[in-house]
């Protein structure tokens, strides 16, 4: 009986190890994009990246199933004009969250295979400076979505109503409405 209790205790303790290790990781959450015009060849993706590790990391490249290529972008103020610029990496400081959002850091999607349609999804893979890859499923919301909650709500509504993106075209990376 004592050996069974010892074994049960050992199994219980060992089963908590993956939970502890999982909290020391990087993760993608709340990934979303805006619907694009049917003829559009570019879009943008937004998400939250959490770095729960004790080491700084950076996103350096990636790919998306909906696009031929991606670029890492941000917006800067230059001569009183807001401009979008490509950047070589997105820093992920240890123990912090980085939010990619319209008018700020974002993932540009180039050479779209087809229009991004409300309610659809696509896969996003981001490669870090250490060679590891983070993956997320991106939900496509309306062109007027301002954040993940709105994108998800619009995607759900379009599934209910059978909407498409044709009448809901996007300013892919601006601040929106």
Explain what you see.
With 177 residues, this protein is of the alpha+beta class. It has one domain: Sandwich (Immunoglobulin-like), CATH 2.60.40.1890. Helices cover 20% and strands 44% of the residues. The chain is built from 3 helices and 10 strands, in the order ααββββββββββα. The longest helix has 14 residues, at 2-15. The protein is globular and about 40 Å long. Residues 7-23 and 160-170 have low confidence and may be disordered.
Structural class: alpha+beta
CATH-assigned fold name? Immunoglobulin-like
Rg for CA atoms: 20 Å
Poorly predicted runs: 7-23, 160-170
Tell me briefly what this model is.
By secondary structure, the protein is α+β, with helices and mostly antiparallel strands. 20% of the residues lie in helices and 44% in strands. The longest helix has 14 residues, at 2-15.
Can you give keywords for this protein?
177 residues, alpha+beta, Immunoglobulin-like, 3 helices, 10 strands, 20% helix
Write the layout of secondary structure elements.
Layout lengths: L1 H14 L1 H7 L2 E9 L7 E10 L5 E8 L2 E12 L2 E6 L3 E3 L3 E5 L5 E7 L8 E8 L4 E9 L6 H14 L16
Parallel strand pairs: 1-10
Antiparallel strand pairs: 1-2, 2-7, 2-8, 3-6, 3-9, 4-5, 4-8, 9-10
């Amino acid at each position: 009986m004592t050996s069974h209790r010892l074994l049960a205790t050992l199994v219980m303790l060992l089963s908590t190890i993956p939970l502890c290790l999982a909290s020391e990781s990087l993760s993608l959450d709340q990934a979303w994009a805006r619907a694009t015009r049917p003829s559009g060849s570019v879009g943008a993706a937004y998400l939250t990246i959490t770095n729960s590790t004790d080491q700084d990391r950076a996103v350096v490249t990636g790919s998306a199933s909906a696009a031929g290529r991606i670029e890492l972008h941000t917006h800067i103020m230059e001569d009183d004009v807001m401009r979008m610029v490509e950047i070589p990496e997105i820093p992920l400081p240890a123990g912090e969250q980085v939010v990619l959002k319209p008018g700020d850091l974002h993932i540009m999607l180039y050479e779209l295979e087809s229009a991004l349609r409300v309610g659809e999804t696509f896969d996003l893979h981001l490669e870090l400076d250490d060679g590891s890859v983070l993956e997320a499923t991106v939900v496509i919301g309306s062109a007027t979505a301002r954040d993940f909650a709105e994108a998800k709500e619009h995607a759900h509504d379009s599934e209910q109503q059978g909407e498409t993106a044709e009448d809901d075209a996007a300013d892919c990376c601006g601040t929106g409405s």
